[in-house]
Amino acid sequence: DRTSDLSGKSVLITAGPTYEKIDPVRFIGNYSSGKMGYALAEECASRGANVTLVSGPVALSAKSSNINVVSVESAREMLDECQKVFPTSDISIMCAAVADYAPANPSDHKIKREKQDVPTITLVKNPDIAATLGKEKRPEQVLVGFALETDNEAVNASEKLTRKNLDMIVLNSLRDKGACFGTDTNKVSIIRSDKSRTDFPLKDKSEVAGDIIDEILKILGKV
Ligand code: C5P
User: Which of 67, 160, 199, 206 has its CA 20 to 30 A from that of 121?
Assistant: First the structure.
């Protein structure tokens, strides 16, 4: 019975982009809409899970009352919030498009346009949330990542799965029409830790979420 197959389970999901402050009015960000992460949260809630959705800035809201939305802005804040709930999460799905770098010294006043010089923004590396949780993961916990690749898709995605200690990675290729930032559809492949792979056709993001959760349940059945 799909409507209760996650009952009693706690699920952590990250979604959306992160914004990394340059000054009080500017940031470094990306085009992630958060739609895939929110669809996953609704799917898990509809199957009886308690969901914590750690969300970067998006134009979406969660519908189910079983979803606790924790709004964050930066990668650092997203990591801090994830670490609070990860120890008690049965399933964690890293769907956010986390910015790789953040300004080293965000200005506390608006940076003025210079008459001559173009400002230089020095960047520092952001923490890798999935990899950090991967190091803390216990054997009975399931950790799932996403990979957006433009070339050498399967090899790059499998390498990420190993490096971040994931149990499964969902690959979406930018080559596929309709599988892009902001769209309502997605075309994914799922790669498991034994490197076996399943390719799914282009579907609505809510149906993709159902396929992903079905796969996670198969892994949970084995641990
Ligand atoms: O290394 P890459 O960014 O391609 O990895 C993508 C996967 O890792 C996604 O699951 C994403 O949510 C996660 N990630 C993360 N923290 C980062 C970068 C990526 O959790 N700083």
Answer: 160
